Amino acid sequence: MSATPIPAFPPAQQAQIIRAHQRDLIHVSSLREQTENILRSWFGTRWLTRFDKEVELAVRLTYHALTTGRAIQTLGEEYTNIWAHPKWARNPRIRAALILLPTIPSYLLARLGPSLYARSPRLKGVASAAVSALDVAGEVNLAVFYISGLYYRLVRRFLGVPHISATPIDPNARPPSYSLLGVLILVRLGHRLLTYMRSRSPRQASPATDEKTVSFGSPDEPHLDDRPISTLLNYDPEADVDPSEEKEQLTVLDLQAMPASVRGNRTCTLCLEERTATCVTECGHLFDWNCIYGWGREKAECPLCRQSLSLTKLLPIYNL
Q1: For the whole model, what pTM was predicted?
Q2: DSSP codes joined into one string, 88-137
Q3: pLDDT score recorded for residue 211
């Protein structure tokens, strides 16, 4: 008698991996929102704003520890009927790396980075270069995934942990191709590289271009009249500024000449400190620019009245 062949599971298709990743993001976001609502009711908005990064880290670690850490499918993988290859998923070290590598380094960089940068400017440059390199590596990995169909996440490519599917391959059906997206990403990376090389070239540098390129604003920062808000406030979030000097630069008011009773009413409800870069929301509430901008990036609602909050519609006020 001939031996019965052992069934083999086909590799997961690109569409399955993408949908699984999207579903995981939705579940993690929902879990984080519910956790923040509970913590806000217990400890208040100020505490939540102070420990927002720890809350995000705890939520992500909990979700992946209860799924990947136990060698079972995540909710996204279960939704698309895929899972990590058992050959690697059964290894506790591989599972721990899949959980910790995407979460711990980013948390440490966000939480400890500013204090380390203040002590060592050279370390700041090295860290910025490392972050940029990882961003580029992530985009290259995504482009390769769209072309080849393997390893959506960079950490999975690094560890060599593919996905397999329980859905049999239909020989009469042609799966969708995402190769064009991969090519477009590579074209964009090539353009960025060319722009960077031109900016570093001594022949391209000139005082006029230098003045135009000096800007504290980032592409994701809200703009007012085509100018980044940080430039209107004369504020560089990466610069080390003395607090007393910063207060004088971010407002036209003479804070030192103000009576104590007046300055006592200029308290930001998020940080409970005196407002230095005052801005107003659409609903009319006043906050420090740094506080409300950081809040709005995490949750698009006013912390006082819960109305919708748009970062592009924050209005800086210099004399209040």
Answers
A1: 0.63
A2: HHT-HHHHHHHHHTTTHHHHHHHHHHHHHHHH-HHHHHHHHHHHHHHHHH
A3: 45
